[in-house]
Amino acid sequence: MKKNIALVMGGFSGEHDISIASGNQVYGQLDHTKYNVYKIVIEREGWFWMDGDERRPMDRNDFTLEDNGQVVRFDLAFIIVHGNPGENGILQAYFDILGIKYTTCGYYTSALTFHKGHCNPVVKNYGVVNIAESELLYTMADLPKTDRLQLPVFVKPAAGGSSVATTKVKKREDLAEAVKLAFTEDHEVLVEECIVGRELDCGVFRKADGEKLVFPITEIIPKGGHEFFDYEAKYQGFSNEVTPAEIDERISKHVQEVSSQLYDLLGCKGIVRFDYIHETATDKLYYLEVNTIPGQSAESIVPKQAKAMGISPAELYEMSIQAALRS
After folding, report:
1. Is the four-CA dihedral 134, 138, 140, 142 of positive or negative sign?
2. Which DSSP symbol is given to 162?
3. What whole-number distance in Å separates Cα of residue 159 and Cα of residue 273?
4. Nearest residue to 69 (alpha-carbon basis) of 56, 60, 78
5. For residue 7, which phi and psi values (nearest 5 degrees)?
6. Residue from 190, 174, 194 nearest 182 by CA
7. Position 233 confidence tier, pLDDT thresholds 50, 70, 90
8. Closest by Cα among 263, 253, 262, 258 to 210
């Protein structure tokens, strides 16, 4: 009998449209001869499933829907919601209560890793990678706390992704405006010292049989006047993404080893991506963040890394489903 798969996308954050793009990409790669796949879209106005181009209601009490007069219950949720409520643990806790398996990290790991201000001290304590100096702000009144940080700094929502509302600040007088912008996306803001170097990303995934795949490294090189991998650089073509990265093999192996360690230390599951800066002047590796639901759109990094490893998107998503079903 075919399994019922809920492909969950959308969400409440500025990454909503990217999530839809990722979800549509995954939908096209899943094996529809093996699975009944339903597109489930989450928005603040409500949850619904897509019956062709038509929106149909969902029952959020038990996460069921009605299709041709039959109640559909799900064997698995393939979560592709970037940001709130998919990447911060809320959906995972909901599915845990309902007893529905899912393809991502559990609720605790998701909640911890999504909040950079809380996760960074945990990662620092592991002692496997460096962390930039930073301050966590709760209100604009906390702004003086940033005086100890050396410019330039990055100002970003403490819980967010895709570089939404993120600013690189070079002048002290520009700091307040950047913090205000970040507060429009989240109620806490992280101000973090800028590390000068090469941005390196590494995907990791554990298969159903326990084998861990550590993907080739990608180097992100912004272009067209973009100084860092901001929203436009990510999704509007203002960056070169080189996979495998053209870096020393020693550095590449170190990034992969750290990523493999952090995957286990943080209790990750499913497909995740770790982002770093390799500081040129000191030869040190700095942790930026972990994306527990990395993008799967045509422009996204992890599918390119998997392809460089000889794994097609269809194979990657099938492995993800099998690992989740057997968990």
Report:
1. negative
2. T
3. 16
4. 56
5. -90, 100
6. 190
7. very low
8. 263
For residue 98, the number of C-alpha atoms closer than 13 Å in the C-beta half-sphere is 20
What lies within 8 Å, CB to CB, of 106 at 6+ separation is 89, 92, 96, 267, 269
Residue 213 to residue 305: CA distance in whole angstroms? 11
SS3 125: helix
- At 159, the amino acid letter reads A
Q: Which two tokens stand for residue 295?
A: 């993008």
Per-residue pLDDT tens for 142-168? 999 999 999 999 999 988 655 678 899
Say which amino acid occupies 240: N
Q: Strand 54-57 and strand 189-193: pairing?
A: unpaired
Flag whether pLDDT at 194 surpasses 80: yes
CA–CA distances in Å: residue 10 to residues 16, 20, 45, 122? 5, 5, 12, 29
Rounded Cα–Cα distance for residues 303 and 218 (Å): 11
Tell me, what's the pLDDT at 292?
97
Model confidence pLDDT, tens digit, residues 87-110: 999 999 999 999 999 999 999 999
- Tell me the torsion sign for CA atoms 112, 114, 118, 123: positive
Give me the percent of the chain exceeding a pLDDT of 70. 94
Which token pair is 267?
A: 């209790």
pLDDT of 226 reads 46
H or E stretch including 273?
strand 272-279
Distance CA 18, CA 80 (A): 10
pTM: 0.91
Pull the structure tokens for residue 71.
């109640």
